[in-house]
Structure formats: structure tokens, C-alpha cells
Write a structure and sequence with these properties.
Keywords: Membrane, Transmembrane, Transmembrane helix
Structural class: alpha+beta
Strand order of the largest sheet: 2-1-6-7-3-10-11
Shape: elongated
Number of domains: 2
Helix content: 40-55%
Transmembrane segments: 118-140, 146-169, 225-244
Mean pLDDT: 86
Number of strands: 11
Radius of gyration: 28 Å
Length: 386
């Protein structure tokens, strides 16, 4: 009877430690792509839920975000926001019916986006390496051969996964040298907010018009072979873990508990903390009337006034399709064209205020957009059945 109980407790230890070793898939996968962009991913270390990173296929592009991207003058349209652009703009989220204008520049054309060298992900990777070294020393000190094999196998598994998943980020560059007129990028979000981005064509091509490409160091065939070897290493590592002494099993259990908590905390942090976006400089421009608007109509009018164009509203099907809205858009276009002509006559030009102070509030044409829409929607006022 006692022998049976002892055997039951031994199996219980194996189940608990093995469960801890494969727990935490969501936390590990949350930042798996950006972590494999850094060479720190090659460090031998304990890694919770390594099976989550042994995938049959790898991502070809980074995950996009919701939103419609429209070129105010070029007419280009995308039904999503690229990942890097979303990271740049989501540092301070937009509220509903907010309108914001940002100017993006890139002082060094050769600089690019990369993983943050010193950040939370680097910290948890170094923590995993320290856990491996500690358990390696304890295994040798306690003369536990199975624990030694476990430490070696499970630590090298992270290196195998890192080699197979290592990649370089490629942002599409313009190949033609022809001059292109300046354009504004308008991003319309589902909750009625607008973001107007002022940048040159090179930055627009990198951030908005082409998805980011993941160029892996090794091809698919090599990756599948690495995945197969990694799967075998994981299985043998878990088997050796189950045959190690109770003292080392407790050590592994404690290590995986700490690592799971650390990876959960890192996964909960803002994504911008894991990326180095310093190659881009983002400056906010301020306009009369404030950022937050009371309705979608006012937000749309403000976006039109900042871009000084209604072409993107028509091209992107931003306004509802009805006679009243068509008349409203036409009227908005007439007002911004008239205001533009006044600026040109005054020698200001569209980008005349580029040299103004960053926080100087810039004027916008005055128009009661809400009342105008109400008038167009009223059949008695317009004579239209809309």
C-alpha cells in the first residue's frame, strides 16, 4: 500500500512539473514575432510553453489592425492599417469622433525598425538564461544526470526555435526617383475617429501602402527540419525531467512558475515597449477647435478642413450614400477650395505653416457642418426626398 502511494506521488510530481513546463502558450505567443527579430532569441534558456513556437508554418506578414487608409490626393485605399504604422499611432489612442494630425519624418533614410535591444523581452530572455545556468549548476552539484540532461535539452530547445524563426523586417522602399506631389494620409477608424498623417511618399510607401515582409534567415525546408528536431528534443526533455530527483523537480517547477508570471507581465505591456521605432520622428500638429468632436459629422468636416480636400471622402466611401450627404460633401469641398484660394492669394500655400511653432494652434475655415446636414436632410428645406 505504501509503495503504491509513493508511486502515485511520484507520478503526481511528474504531471505537475510537466504541466508547468508547457503552461502559458498565450503569453509566449503574444510577442513571439518581435522576440525572434532579435539575436537574443538564440540564447539557450528555459522557455515556458516552447511547443507554442514550434509551428508548421511561419508568418509572412505582421498582423494588421482595423482601419481604412486613404491617400487624400493619390486616391490609394487600404482596408487595414499596417502593424508598424499602428504601433506609431497607438501610443495615445484616439477617442470616438476625435481628429488628430501628425507629421512623420525620417532623418536617417537608412535607419529601420527593429526589436528593442534593452527592453522587457530582453529581460525575460536573460531571466530564462539565468534559470538554466542555476539549474545546470544545481544538477552538477546534486549529481543528478537526468536533471542535467533536462537542463541541456530544454535550454537548447529555445536556441533551435530561435534559429528557425529568426527573421529580418523589410519595409518596402520606393525604387523610382521621380518627384511625387505631397499627399496626406487619412486613417478612418471604426469608432468614427480620423488620423491625418503628413509625410513624404517614401514614408507613406513604407508604413501604409505595402505590408511589412518577414524575411526569414532559413527557408521553409530547413525550418520544418528544425521543428521536427525541436519536437523530439522537447519530448526527451520532459521524459528526463520526470526521472530527475525531487529536489531538482521542485527547482524546475519554481523556475517555470517564475517565468510564466514574467511572460504574462510582459505580454500585458504595450506592444510599443518591445519595438525600436526611433528611426521615425512623430510631431503632432494642433488646429483650432480641439481634437475631440461631438459627432461623426463634425469629425468628418474637421478632417476635410485639415486635408483641404473631399476627394478622399468620395474615393473611400467615407460618407453615407444619399443625396443629402452628397450635397453636404460638395458644399464642404467648395468651402475648403475657397479657403485654399484665399491662402494662395495671401502667399501662404498649403504647407505654409510647416515652419510655425509645433504647438501653435492653426486656423480652420468656419462652417456649421451639423446645421448644413440638417438642412439637406430636411425635404421642406431642400425639396429633396432623402
Amino acid at each position: 500500500m505504501l509503495d503504491w502511494l509513493n508511486g502515485g506521488f511520484s507520478n503526481l510530481r511528474l504531471d505537475i512539473v510537466g504541466f508547468l513546463a508547457i503552461l502559458g502558450e498565450a503569453s509566449v505567443k503574444a510577442n513571439a514575432q518581435v522576440s525572434s527579430l532579435s539575436y537574443l532569441a538564440l540564447l539557450p534558456r528555459l522557455l515556458p510553453a516552447p511547443q507554442a513556437l514550434i509551428r508548421s508554418t511561419r508568418l509572412e506578414n505582421l498582423k494588421s489592425d482595423t482601419g481604412k487608409v486613404i491617400g487624400a490626393r493619390s486616391g490609394g485605399i487600404r482596408d487595414y492599417v499596417n502593424h508598424i504604422a499602428h504601433l506609431l499611432h497607438s501610443r495615445e489612442p484616439l477617442e470616438a469622433y476625435a481628429v488628430r494630425c501628425e507629421r512623420i519624418t525620417k532623418p536617417n533614410r537608412d535607419a529601420t525598425v527593429s526589436a528593442r535591444t534593452l527592453g522587457p523581452l530582453a529581460a525575460v530572455e536573460l531571466l530564462g538564461t539565468s534559470m538554466s545556468l542555476t539549474l545546470l549548476a544545481l544538477s552538477i552539484h546534486r549529481n543528478d544526470g537526468f536533471a542535467l540532461l533536462t537542463t541541456i535539452l530544454l535550454s537548447l530547445l529555445s536556441t533551435l526555435i530561435g534559429v528557425g524563426s529568426l527573421w529580418k523586417l523589410e519595409l518596402m522602399q520606393r525604387r523610382a526617383n521621380r518627384r511625387v506631389p505631397k499627399d496626406n494620409i487619412v486613417i478612418k477608424y471604426p469608432h468614427g475617429a480620423f488620423l491625418i498623417v503628413k509625410c513624404d511618399e517614401n514614408i507613406a510607401r513604407e508604413l501604409y501602402w505595402h505590408p511589412e515582409e518577414c524575411n526569414y534567415v532559413f527557408g521553409d525546408t530547413v525550418y520544418r527540419l528544425i521543428s521536427l528536431v525541436g519536437t523530439l528534443v522537447l519530448m526527451f526533455g520532459v521524459i528526463c525531467l520526470g526521472n530527475s530527483t525531487l529536489f531538482l523537480q521542485i527547482g524546475f517547477a519554481a523556475s517555470y512558475m517564475i517565468l510564466n508570471v514574467a511572460y504574462w507581465v510582459v505580454a500585458a505591456l504595450p506592444a510599443q515597449w518591445h519595438w525600436d521605432l526611433s528611426c521615425y520622428e512623430v510631431e503632432r500638429e494642433y488646429y483650432q477647435g480641439g481634437e475631440i468632436q461631438a459627432s461623426y459629422t463634425q469629425a468628418l468636416w474637421r478632417a476635410i478642413a485639415i486635408t483641404q480636400s473631399v476627394d478622399w471622402v468620395r474615393n473611400g466611401a467615407i460618407a453615407p450614400i444619399s443625396e443629402a450627404w452628397k450635397l453636404w460633401v460638395e458644399k464642404a469641398g467648395e468651402i475648403v477650395e475657397s479657403d485654399k484660394e484665399k491662402e494662395e492669394l495671401a502667399g501662404l500655400g498649403m504647407h505654409s505653416n510647416d515652419s510655425l511653432e509645433k504647438r501653435e494652434v492653426k486656423p480652420l475655415p468656419q462652417w456649421d457642418a451639423e446645421q448644413a446636414l440638417t438642412d439637406y436632410l430636411n425635404p421642406a428645406a431642400t425639396g429633396l426626398n432623402v
